Amino acid sequence: MSETSHITESLWAHLATFPATREAVLEHLNRWNAFAATDVLRVIIFGVYDAGKSSLLKRLLVEAGVPVPSWLTVSARRETFEALEIEAGNLIFVDSPGLKGGNDRHDDISRKALQLADAYLWVMPPQLVTSGQAEILGFLKGDFFHCKLPHEAVVGATIAVIGRMDEAGVDPPDSPEGYRSIVATKTAEFEAMLRKAGIEGGLVGPLCVAADPYQSVGNLPDPELGLYDPGREWDGIDALQTALGRLGGDFLRLRAWAGLRFVAAVAKELAGELAEHRSAMDLQAERFVREEERYRLFRKRLSVLIAQAEKDLQRRVEEALLSITRIGSEDTGKAIDRLEKAMKQGIDQWSAFSVAELTGLAQEFELELHEHPLEIDLSAIGDVSDGRIGTSPSMWQKDGLNKLRSCVFGFGPVLKESFHAYVGASIGMSVKTASDRLQKLEGLEGDALTAAIKKLFRTTERMEEASKYVRWSELAAVLGPIAAQLAGLGMDLVADLMTAQEAAERKRRRDELIGELAELSAKIVDQANSIFKVICDDLDAPLTEQMELALCKRMHLLEQRKKIDLFLIELNNRLDQMSARRKTAGA
After folding, report:
1. How large is the average pLDDT for residues 82-88?
2. Phi/psi at 323 (nearest 5 deg)?
3. What pLDDT is recorded for position 237?
4. Coil, helix or strand for 119?
5. Can you say whether residue 512 is alpha, beta or left, with left for phi > 0 and alpha for psi between -120 and 50 degrees?
6. Those residues with Cβ within 8 angstroms of residue 294's Cβ, 6 or more apart along the chain or in another chain
7. Integer Cα distance of 451 and 195 in angstroms
8. 340 or 87, higher pLDDT
9. Summary count for the chain: helices (H), strands (E)
10. Helix or strand or coil: residue 24?
11. What pTM, to 2 d.p., does this model score?
12. Closest CA to 156 of 261, 238, 7, 52
């Protein structure tokens, strides 16, 4: 195997290793294998649309005794819109639309035709390359296929032709010397153009030809060979036919270069797509960073909300207790009433305000889920990982805020009632039902316990959640009779104040009762805050989930990006083997 073939095989082997694009690579490889199976050289005729390509192909077919196809027309306008081919001898000629014709479809046809060919017949008018010079020279340098492709892989397979030389300004029969002079001038201009572009060696030509001297044949459908005889001595066709004839003797080298050019073009196309996709992945990863931070801020706001709610409840209860510290023997009953009303009103107002704040935060969260779903768009290339990351919505996303709405959005003035509504939404049964079912589990063990849990609660997790809510409900019960408890203590206080004990004893008892009230109030504050936090935790859980999901998806993208990077690094390493030859050729 030649060095060129070894590099080609190495590139195909690596290109096929990338999972997301393997199918496309195999399609390209199948195209190449079908091409390589032929034993006839494929020659692409290209150049600007008015260079005389059609006239030249027509002349070559007539010279080879091949009938001129109906699609081959000669015109000063653009007539070639497809890559049409015809076989003549040991060559297949392909008439292409040309490079950078201004039509995306035509350019794509030309690109595909030029990528898969053994040799090139580059035709230009007497003015040489007056437009699209950068594209033409880029093609000859190999950049059209890949920037690391050596020049010789293209110029070594190219025959350059300056056509329509009968229109160059000198009539050859009248001034043979003048014609030879203008041919020399055009040749020198052409060679200077290539040297300036850094393209040297290997290219055949330029051959100056006049395929249809004086346009005597034009669009005649099936011209006789003799019609071209008037210009045969100077039209340059013999030299061109000789150059074309030599291609067959160089079949193996040309076919090897064709394989390298094609795989290099595939590598360039794939690398470009992956680079674009990598940039898109970077943008998505940056978005997930912002989303992660957004949900982290949501959680911070929730923590602040909980802390503020705790302080607010403490303040309201302390304000209610201030009334009892000023109780005197003459207004004890009124003080007790004020305490009862102040305590109930304070807790109700705290409940309404705190849950209104929680409701607002929950609504913002729901809107965020709707407007900024955490999705990864890999449609352009697919997933390059071994397994896809889960992108199905969480339970919170599926249910929205239905569970929280059932208690928070209609939160009444009494926290205990709201807690019971929350429990019903969370476990699908009332606290009493949960308590009754938990009692039925008492004394059971082993399989009997497992079966009972499945029957009564469906899952162990739901049973444990129900148990937690029952315990909270028992603690929350203190909120119902709070006024009665305080009133009872107040009546004890009244009785003590009405005794004949000394003032010091009355003060001691007074302080003792106030301490008991403070202790009970602290317990009420703790229980109320705990119940409120249970509800807040149910919002914190999906916030945490979304934050972690954003991080997970960002890491997933970075992992895929790393795989793309590693693939491209190895691809470049293998392409450098071509580049080494290019540098050697340019030295």
Report:
1. 83
2. -65, -35
3. 94
4. strand
5. alpha
6. 368, 372
7. 89
8. 87
9. 18, 6
10. helix
11. 0.69
12. 261
Q: For residue 43, what are the β-bridge partners? A: 93, 119
The amino acid at 85 = E
- For 551, the token pair is 């991080």
Q: Is 363 helix (H, G, I), strand (E, B) or coil?
A: helix
- Decide: helix, strand or coil at residue 160: strand
Structure tokens given for 4: 């060129």
Secondary structure (DSSP) of 40-87: SEEEEEES-TTSSHHHHHHHHHHHTTPPPPTT----SS----S-EEEE
Could you tell me where the DSSP H helices lie in 428-502?
A: 431-440, 446-457, 460-476, 482-497
- Start-to-end CA span in the chain (Å): 26
Domain regions of the chain by residue span? 41-235
Tokens (6 digits) for 90: 């040991």
Domain at 41-235: CATH code? 3.40.50.300
With tokens 């102040």, the residue in question is 342
> Which ranges of 142-235 would DSSP assign to H, the alpha helix?
152-155, 176-196
Residue 492 has pLDDT above 50, yes or no: no
Q: What distances in angstroms separate CA 491 from CA 323, 486, 505, 578, one per listed residue?
A: 15, 9, 17, 100
CB 419 within 8 A of CB 470: no
* φ, ψ for residue 79, nearest 5 deg: -115, -20
Residues 242, 237: Cα–Cα separation, whole Å = 9
As a whole number of angstroms, the distance between CA 12 and CA 301 comes to: 55
Which residues face 160 on adjacent strands? 122
499 CB neighbour count, 10 Å cutoff? 10
